[in-house]
Design a protein that fits this description.
This protein is mainly beta. It is built from 4 helices and 14 strands. It has helices spanning 14-21, 86-89, 167-176, 234-244, and strands spanning 6-7, 28-36, 42-47, 60-68, 71-80, 95-102, 104-107, 119-126, 143-153, 162-165, 181-185, 193-198, 210-218, 250-252. The protein is globular.
Amino acid sequence: MKSKLLIISTTLLSVLTLQTNAQPGTGYSDVSIILKADTLTRSVLISNIMENKAGDQSPFIGAAYWSDSSNKFRCRSLLSFNYGILPTMIKPEQIVRAELVLYPLELQTTTGRSSNTPNTLIVRRILEPWEDSLASWSNQPLADTRSESAKQLPQKKKETAVKFNVTGIVKDMFQYGNNGFLISNLDSLSTAYTQWFASARYDDESIRPALLLTVAVPYSLRNDPGIPPLPMTASDRAELMQTYFRPEPVTTTPPVPKEPIKE
């Protein structure tokens, strides 16, 4: 039988708040919460190609770098999940693990800007508030370089679901405020690199971004039918990915820019 997981909306957690607060001094048990990108999730693709263009309707997010003569072009992304009342009921120290899950897309393009050299993708905590309909390259918010998760992604070996360990980042979000994640390349790139993922606006909801939280709750809740136990084994984790994310890559055609590319 497949392990059950807690898939909840952050607007429906008042009952858990009451139960958690009503059990002081008890032991704790781990449970899993999956936050899937929905209409409340902010998702933006920004680029220095169109510095003042907001990318809040982009079906994909990610990071890219390429050069043309003396010009260097970059793309970055902003992503923010709506935690609802979770930060008011879960202390940062109760977060055992947090994983940001992104599903890669293969864009149909003839630019050939990718190389075979593995490059590092960086996820950082955004420090400043931003609006998805207004955010652009020219006014992008600052990010915390001390709070980041890095992952090397080979160009020739695309994963079906890329997972970033963002435990420290999410803990800081719960303590200092949630302004979301910045997804970018390393600042010192020398070779062309592109990596795209489905955004919160992608038509196929099954491959939109997700945040997997492992949270310690009072031990007395472990038998509550509404809060199943967290699958702790590697096989359970693999089963989780197969259940909630498609096993094959997705190929899509990027939209045509509505504004001319700056020289």
